[in-house]
Design brief:
The complex is a heterodimer of chains A (300) and B (275). By secondary structure, chain A is mainly α. In chain A, 73% of the residues lie in helices and 0% in strands. Chain A starts with a helix and ends with a helix. Chain B is an all-alpha fold. Chain B is globular and about 75 Å long. Classes of the chains: A mainly alpha (300), B mainly alpha (275).
Chain lengths: 300, 275
Amino acid sequence: MKRLLSSVRDGSGFDIVLVALPLGFLFLMAGLPLLYNILMSFQEVDMFSLGTFLRPFVGFKNYTDLFAQPETWPILGNTAIFVIGSIAGQFLIGFGLALFFWVNFPGASWLRGLFLVSWVMPGLVVGAIWNWILSGDFGVLNFMLRETGIISGNIFWRSDPNYSLYAVIMANIWLGTAFNMILLSVGLASIPGDLYEAAELDGANAWQRFWTITLPMMRSTIGAIVSLGLIFTLQQFDLFAAITSGGPNNSSNVTQYWAWDLSFRQYDFAKGATISVIMIVFVMFASVVYVRSTRHEVRG
Amino acid sequence: MSDTGRNRLMLAIALVMAAIYLFPLYWMYITALKSGSEMFATPPSFWPSQPQWATYAFVWESRGMGRYLWNSLIIAFGSVTLITVLGVGCAYVLARYRNVWVDVGLFLILMLQVLPASLMITPIFVGFSQLGMLNYPRLAVIIAIAAKSMPFFVVLVRATFMAVPQELEEAALVDGNSRVGAFFNIVLPLARNGILVSAILIFMQAFGEFVYSKSIIQAVELQPASVGLNSFMGPNTNEWNNIMAYATIYVTPILAIFVLLQRRIVSGLTSGAIK
């Protein structure tokens, strides 16, 4: 006992305690729910069996039921559009801004940091602001589009099934662009400057320098950012809750909102767990890509 | 073109881009000051003709914002405390050693970081209800947020510990400090700034957290401001000036902290997230 105490105070026991407590906590609060989720996706769960672990085992019934539902495929399609649209928008605008701020001028780094306010704001507040901007009759976005002659009549962004998903994508691009830009700026800053000097001596123009130096040197950064973007877009929930609530008629519903909706609005916890399992597999895949593309940096 | 001329042009373009990007924020502040009729005017006014400062007091009173913000503060402080107490030691150990086990630990932590909250809430809610944790809803939310945000904190703080020279700790051990003493007297003070910045980032996240609070906390008097804002925005609401006033009161403190500490927050974020 005394040896154990002294090891904790002044030996490797100290490290083990420091790392075992948080990992134990994480296992209890994140690992176990993950396993429990898988268990629930094979059970029949309703309000009455919520309090017990021994629920009727139904095999793959939840999965087959899920894919027999008419809304499942459209919602999976929406999720794909949401993820691709958001990542493409965030990345392209973010990369453009990062390249612009890369040209150093006084105040550049301060102004660049200012963009990040979109990222620190609570998601629900961002959603509320965009909900108002996108409002059909009185929204300022419709006003600007009308004034510039892009549209002739008002677009009902939130209630028109053709536009509702894109309304949320727009808000999500605004939310995530700054984060993309900051991380891309870090990647750009780490490219050695003499590469460009050498290329310039060899007579390469700006366009060639971008394609032959900037992009290849940024490859691991871009890989990390795209997979981080995938992870973050699949976590986006607040904007859906604040702007469209998945409606109208599921036209802007995505899996991460649908899973919550099934569990907490329709009390179908088994279905909610089933979708969660499917999506978590996707997210895990993305995070393996992310870890791989940052691994050499994590070690260094 | 001369260098100063070029710099001025770049700065001007950058300011215009920042203005476009931050327009939604401006629109929130302006709408909050408009009267009910001015808000729905066509064309919309970009500067309030008669600023309605009384809206803030009205919204604060009628929505009971004091209580909501107090709950948000409790939840945010609780999660930050729990995360800091548990996470700092973990980050320290993961920064101090380099072996297979550290790689495995880091990999597991990164994996847990990516699980979407809206997918994890189903098993957490069912599990908590079986354990009777739903009787202490704010504590349940604090624990859930801690489990969600701790991996991010550990990754950020680990980068800070990596920057502390190991020779300093070894010197302290040679001088007769125990491991505990060296950790608290030498390493922790040197990493203080990085830990503080990471804790502030976590605080801002927890202050705006929505999914867990919405699902776990049923009693209105225990809900945080994010849930309050959500119930304020009904499907057919037209009180946009009041909602924007609510949003203003809610985010202005966060924005103030961010602008004050911007440089540190950005550098802390970039050092951990990708490098």
